[in-house]
């Protein structure tokens, strides 16, 4: 019996910034290096504001591959018949319109996080994706990494008992007093601030550990948020939010935080269970190790295991493999990072911004 040929997924890249470069380089890593034999990725086209910028991206990030098409507009990428799926890597507040244009061109979409500026925009995108019969997913890459899959096995197995408490933080010192006010982290027109830029990462660990916990039954938490704004531009500088899961068999709390003027913690995530603790190493968006501590019946440390993970590339290719398999199988969303989970994320962010009094400038949110 002959071997099954891998499916090739053809990508169009929208935007030429740092995250687009990192993702594109990962697409070029041979899938066999991560024991993937059923899918292959091919970059077909890059779209930017000018042909020169697109070509420069191809030359610097993609080895100057002469077979790649450089387009001076996004529309040309959407309308390219050789492109199966669009990767949207523009600033947060452009995700809605860029994704919508791609969807209307009948292209599948992988959109960077945060997927939109608010929940209403996301609902509109999901309606459009359904109407046009295309796959759509937020690029929550952490959820697909081998470390996360192993963490989920242990967390959901019950061997540590029920989860009780999640503490997770992602912070970064952006030197906010010495960068332009137009920098993405400071500009409210780009959805600047800690919550939308950094917040998805502490949140994804709370969703994995608590929302997805078998005992929770996909029940939504109650949300309490607190925001400290920077006087520089009024975006959120330090944000914390608490999620209480108490409407199911689970009684657990997540305490999550993000800051743009201080460094990250290590470990960045600590999850306490009835019978032990899991500590996730920093950086929490792509950790390479975690520690599992098992307690005995007296609450003393009985055993400690440390798990390490290595692979070729940055770790953004695992989500691309998921996209390829879903499209191959005719699925319109991923089970691991479903539309429902992105909607929950945006529900939480909307509520935290509302409680903290952080409103985006008029016209930034395209659907309200």
UniProtKB/TrEMBL annotation:
Domain Gfo/Idh/MocA-like oxidoreductase N-terminal: 9-137
Gene3D superfamilies: Dihydrodipicolinate Reductase, domain 2, NAD(P)-binding Rossmann-like Domain
Catalysis performed (reactions): D-xylose + NADP(+) = D-xylono-1,5-lactone + NADPH + H(+)
Domain GFO/IDH/MocA-like oxidoreductase: 150-278
EC main group: oxidoreductase
Pfam families, per database record: GFO_IDH_MocA, GFO_IDH_MocA_C3
InterPro entries: Gfo/Idh/MocA-like_OxRdtase_N, Gfo/Idh/MocA_domain, GFO_IDH_MocA-like_dom, NAD(P)-bd_dom_sf
EC number per UniProt: 1.1.1.179
Highest taxon of the lineage: Eukaryota
Keywords assigned by UniProt, alphabetized: Oxidoreductase
Family: Belongs to the Gfo/Idh/MocA family.
Name this polypeptide is given: D-xylose 1-dehydrogenase (NADP(+), D-xylono-1,5-lactone-forming)
Species in which this protein is naturally found: Lentinula lateritia
Organism classification: Eukaryota, Fungi, Dikarya, Basidiomycota, Agaricomycotina
């Amino acid at each position: 019996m002959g071997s099954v040929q891998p499916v090739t997924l053809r990508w169009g890249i929208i935007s030429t910034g740092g995250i687009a470069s990192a993702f594109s380089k990962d697409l070029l890593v041979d899938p066999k290096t991560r024991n993937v034999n059923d899918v292959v990725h091919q970059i077909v086209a890059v779209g930017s504001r000018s042909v020169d910028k697109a070509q420069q991206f191809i030359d610097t990030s993609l080895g100057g591959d002469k077979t790649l098409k450089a387009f001076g507009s996004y529309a040309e990428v959407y309308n390219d018949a050789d492109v199966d799926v669009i990767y949207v890597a523009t600033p947060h507040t452009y995700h809605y319109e860029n994704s919508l244009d791609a969807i209307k061109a009948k292209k599948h979409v992988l959109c960077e996080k945060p997927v939109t500026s608010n929940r209403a925009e996301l609902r509109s995108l999901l309606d459009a994706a359904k109407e046009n019969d295309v796959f759509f997913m937020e690029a929550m890459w952490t959820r697909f990494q081998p470390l996360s899959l192993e963490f989920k096995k242990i967390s959901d197995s019950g061997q540590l008992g029920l989860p009780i408490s999640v503490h997770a933080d992602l912070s970064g010192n952006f030197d906010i007093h010495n960068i332009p006010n137009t920098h993405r982290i400071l500009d409210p027109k780009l959805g600047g601030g800690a919550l939308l830029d950094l917040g998805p990462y502490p949140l994804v660990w709370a969703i994995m550990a608590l929302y997805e916990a078998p005992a929770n039954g996909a029940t939504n938490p109650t949300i309490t948020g607190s925001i400290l704004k920077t006087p520089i531009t009024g975006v959120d500088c330090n944000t914390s939010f608490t999620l209480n899961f108490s409407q199911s068999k689970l009684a657990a709390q997540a305490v999550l935080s993000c800051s743009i003027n201080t460094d990250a913690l290590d470990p960045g995530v600590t999850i306490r269970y009835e019978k032990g603790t899991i500590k996730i190493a920093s950086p929490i968006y792509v950790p390479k190790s975690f520690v599992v501590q098992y307690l005995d019946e007296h609450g003393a440390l009985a055993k400690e295991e440390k798990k390490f993970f290595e692979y070729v590339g940055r770790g953004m290719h695992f989500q691309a493999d998921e996209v390829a398999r879903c499209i191959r199988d005719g699925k319109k969303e991923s089970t691991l990072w479903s539309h429902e989970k992105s909607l929950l994320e945006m529900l939480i962010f909307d509520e935290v911004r509302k409680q903290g009094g952080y409103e985006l400038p008029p016209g930034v949110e395209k659907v309200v």
